[in-house]
Amino acid sequence: MQSARLSDDQRRDWLRLARAENVGPVAFRYLIETYGEPAKAIGAMPRLAERAGRALPPRVPSPPEAQAELDAGAALGARLLCACEPAFPPLLAALDPPPPLVWALGDAGLLHGRSVAVVGARNASAAGQRFARGLAQDLGRAGFMVVSGLARGVDGAAHEGSLETGTIAVLGGGPDDIYPPEHAGLHQRIAGRGCIVSESPPGYRAQARDFPRRNRLVSGLSLGVVVVEAELRSGSLITARLAAEQGREVFAVPGSPLDARAKGTNDLIRQGATLCESAEDVIRALGEGFGAGLREPEPAAYAHKGAEEPDAALIRRVAELLSPTPVSWDELARTAGVPAPTAYAALVELSLVGRCELLPGGLVVGA
Amino acid sequence: MQSARLSDDQRRDWLRLARAENVGPVAFRYLIETYGEPAKAIGAMPRLAERAGRALPPRVPSPPEAQAELDAGAALGARLLCACEPAFPPLLAALDPPPPLVWALGDAGLLHGRSVAVVGARNASAAGQRFARGLAQDLGRAGFMVVSGLARGVDGAAHEGSLETGTIAVLGGGPDDIYPPEHAGLHQRIAGRGCIVSESPPGYRAQARDFPRRNRLVSGLSLGVVVVEAELRSGSLITARLAAEQGREVFAVPGSPLDARAKGTNDLIRQGATLCESAEDVIRALGEGFGAGLREPEPAAYAHKGAEEPDAALIRRVAELLSPTPVSWDELARTAGVPAPTAYAALVELSLVGRCELLPGGLVVGA
To answer: pTM of the entire structure?
Structure first.
């Protein structure tokens, strides 16, 4: 997205569009690139929704509602970072698509350092927590910021180990959502000398469904993700998968086959993750050169500029091809027999009325 | 080597040549392939030694000395298996070069099954021993023979787990060399229902220098080697390296970075060993097809047939090129400017008088 400082009005409208019903990061990016300004995109939404077959446009927060969120953030001392701004974390800007915005509470400058995520089991063993703490400490001494999710177990230990050198906690709830309760003191210390990051508005309490988005931010803020103890089918493995999809390095700490908490990490190693026994393994893999290829994707990746505006009939044709099985946008365009940019515009409009969901990575599922 | 049943005299001479001074498996193989019969090779040795610059030929045990070893083996109930015989373990025959002979005490038929070695630390943790025992049991149930070295720790546990289904203990000492003392009962049970294998004569007690040869047999008898707990620079890692050189599969059981006994296995995984959490991992990798490529190497590999006999001058030229740094036979032949088979013959003659050592894998070092 373009790099610019926003006026107060633009910032408020950016927030309104980001919080609009059915507007995920894919549609957000499309709308900003197509309409240039969030206000223009908001203005176009009734027409786009109507063309996609819905009379009522998606709900967009009013300017006072957005202002209330901005005021709540300011009251906390948090800072809103929009994806088009220079202060936005560069590794997040390199995501395709990036999150439209994040709240940062604490030292937002840490988000411009070289970061590594250290994540793992909430029910980690004492040894696993000790390892995570030491690893975070060693990574910090080597100049890395340490990113984690402020959860019990490995996450908490990783933050503790890196409080002195730079720690970044990513929350599923708002920046003031203290969870688990026993991490209240840690939350406060991170807000003081580290940085708390969240896509959610102040005052919002995390729900289970918010954690995949949180995990995408944990890996997205990091050059690599180290998984310390994880059972099979655990959230840490999702973070690892997201990291791999984002072109970030995946590390896993091995463990005894007799320990269920090592099943997930051993499985990652089997699948090609780099085996991690110490910070050295991470430092070696993430040398100076690593991450040079991680930069903001070209707008052309979305290839919608100069696309014909899809008419209602074409949108209906595309809608009929949707199914609960994810397909790629390209494949759907070929099946519909329309140019990819036009099919893509139709999909965005269908997503705005809740007919489909656009997934990062170029996939779409019917809803 | 040719497949044949030996007469009593031939067997005794085979043993004499195998036990001759300075005759390792490389020279043994060369001599047998060049002279056809061990007796003829023994007869040629004075001339070969003289040409290589030594007046006294290498010491060869007398027929009564060899007979005494045969009698001692028979008294134990052990069986001498010579590399040219059908009863010789086929996976050992596939080594290049194979050991000239082994003693087998117990059920030598087990040596013709599909085998997996389970090896590891002598000071293994209780968990590591439990894992090794269970793994050996599961491999046994899946139809594999389990090979190990009868040492304390992992080895002993692996044998115990596979006593019912087929266990093979390879000793550095003679087949009757009971070590460690607390494995006396296990030794006896393996001799009863499993098989004890050794390259050393009955009555011989293992020295430290015998273990590399023992390890080469452990991996050589096996389609794959599983390493369960191993510190860095431990014997189990040597067995793993030998296995890889022999074209056998290497498996390693991961462990916590906080446990020194996992350093070696984690390092093996880092180097490409297959991560092993259960017998399933081994069974999957060593499916029916695995090992089909492991067969007796062509005699042509040694390429000495029809070689010109090297004269004393040529042997001296080759000798001058030797150094304590291992070089390949081929490279040495090129540097000497002589055809490879001729240079190779010269090297064997030099090895017989102790001027160099021929290593499996085509390397030679000056002595």
So the answer is: 0.87
